[in-house]
Amino acid sequence: MEKRAPEGGRRPPAQAFDVPLDAHLHTELSPDSAVPLELYAAQAAERGVREIAITDHLDFSPDAPAYAYADYGRREREVRAAAERWVGKVTIRFGVELTYESRHEDAIRQHLRTHSYDYALGTVHDMSDGPYGRSRVESFVAGKTLAEAVAPYFAEVAAAIRSGLFDTIGHLDMIKRYLIKWWPAADYAAIPEMYEPLLVALVESDTALEVNASGLRHPTGETYPAPWVVARFRELGGQRVTVGSDSHLPHCFAFGLEEACEIVAAAGFDRLTLQRAVERGDLVLPERFHRA
Predict the structure, then answer these.
(1) 178-216 burial, b for 16+ CB within 10 Å, e for fewer?
(2) Fewer CB within 10 A of the terminal residue: the chain, N end or C end?
(3) Cα 240-241-245 angle, rounded to 5 deg
């Protein structure tokens, strides 16, 4: 696993202490993780992370890994039981990461209508038969500008936001990871016009923006999205933001959340959020993030 090198003497990203929330965690109930929920809860208690959201994957394409990996009943039972065991020590929320594809929007909507979660996180990945699959991406990007290459991904993100289905949109521009071979993350600052409609849609729909710290573990070397995007979201009137490590491994719990919270604070936010309809005062960023 690659980590960002220190810059200007700054310590490299690591697992954080004393942050209000890690809102993006995968357990053994995701096909790409083998972490017991209890291990996350124990680390949260040890590190002073007061609240965690378990957001195991749920896919809607039959050929996708999390299409029928763990049924709702099992996921709910295990997370709710853990929440009871850790009451008074760590608050554990029953969440879900739903892979959004516009062709499956009706199925996603029906699932959320008939199943209850504390937190619904919507994300876009390398679509099962889309242009970013490993066997297709090289031919897809050939001859294209960066703006042209990201357009299908950003169109799906825009549709996910407009759907109104999710509390939060996660890793808004993880496309950076799929295209890193051709364009470094820094190049995305040259296409702000591609981000603007997404950020406006987030503001207009009162959907939260996730600052996903997993990019600090990836060759991209920056969060999804980058600090300038979070700052622009705030300038446009964004009110709701959250942070998540997107952990799939024990040592990735709360990884990079110090940096994610710094980005949030620098953009002008003083607290994090979780559920769309719930205004809370207990996810305020610690004082150290507000020092000049």
Answers:
(1) bbeeebebeebeebeebbeebbbbbbeeebbbbbbbbbb
(2) C
(3) 155
Place of tokens 């995701």: 30
CATH code at position 160: 3.20.20.140
State how far the Cα of 261 lies from the Cα of 210, in Å rounded to an integer: 11
Tokens of 136: 């297709």
Closest among 94, 95, 109, 102 to 165, alpha carbons compared: 109
Indicate whether 155 belongs to any domain: yes
What range does the domain containing 54 cover?
A: 21-290
Q: Report how many domains make up the chain.
A: 1
Per-residue pLDDT tens over the stretch 148-185:
999 999 999 999 999 999 999 999 999 999 999 999 99
By the 8 A CB rule, do 74 and 38 touch? Answer: no
- Rounded to whole angstroms, the Cα distance separating 270 from 261 reads 9
Q: Read off the pLDDT of residues 19-75 as tens digits, 9 standing for 90 and up.
A: 999 999 999 999 999 999 999 999 999 999 999 999 999 999 999 999 999 999 999
Q: Where are the beta strands (DSSP E) in the chain?
A: 21-25, 51-54, 57-58, 91-99, 119-123, 168-169, 208-212, 241-244
Find out whether 24 and 170 touch, Cβ atoms under 8 Å: yes
Quick check: is 14 in a domain?
Answer: no
User: Using one digit for the tens of pLDDT, what is the confidence trace for 226-281?
Assistant: 999 999 999 999 999 999 999 999 999 999 999 999 999 999 999 999 987 677 77
Q: What is the DSSP string of 82-119?
A: HHHHTTTT-EEEEEEEEEP-GGGHHHHHHHHHHS--SE
Q: Both tokens of residue 127?
A: 């679509």
What pTM does this model have?
0.94
The reply to whether 10 falls in a domain is no
Half-sphere exposure (Cβ direction) of 64: Cα atoms closer than 13 Å: 23
Sign of CA dihedral 109, 112, 118, 120: negative
